[in-house]
Amino acid sequence: MNDLASVLAKVDWEKMGGLVPVIVQDINTKSVLMQAYVDQEALRLTIKTGKCHYFSRSRKTIWQKGETSGNIQYIKEICIDCDGDCILYKIVQKGVACHTGEYSCFFEKIYGE
User: pTM of the prediction?
Assistant: First the structure.
């Protein structure tokens, strides 16, 4: 396993002003659950605690998924794309991922059969 400094060094933190988008996927079902953002501290906390942390762009603060709702996400793997500017969290979801009560935030089909 890589040490924290080498993990953080793989990410292009400059491209989007210190934030990087994160795609969140259920490690068992492969369902895409949500998309969020992390800064370096949120990624550090995710690795350190084993629970997913994100950066809220509207509140300008770090938050732990499920801290108030109980719908905790446990990190199992973290992957990065070829450009270093997008992260994939593979997680185990306790409860639902979406604040609407749906399991995934991607429940509304807008095109296709």
Answer: 0.93
What is the C-alpha to C-alpha distance for residues 22 and 54, in angstroms, rounded to an integer? 9
- 72: containing domain: 4-93
Q: Mean pLDDT of successive 10-residue segments in the chain (113 residues)? A: 84 96 98 98 97 97 96 98 97 97 96 93
| Longest CA pairwise span in the chain (Å) | 45
Q: Report the chain's C-alpha Rg in angstroms.
A: 14
* Inside any domain, residue 104: no
77, part of any domain: yes
The CATH number of residue 63's host domain is 3.10.20.810
Domains in the chain, number: 1
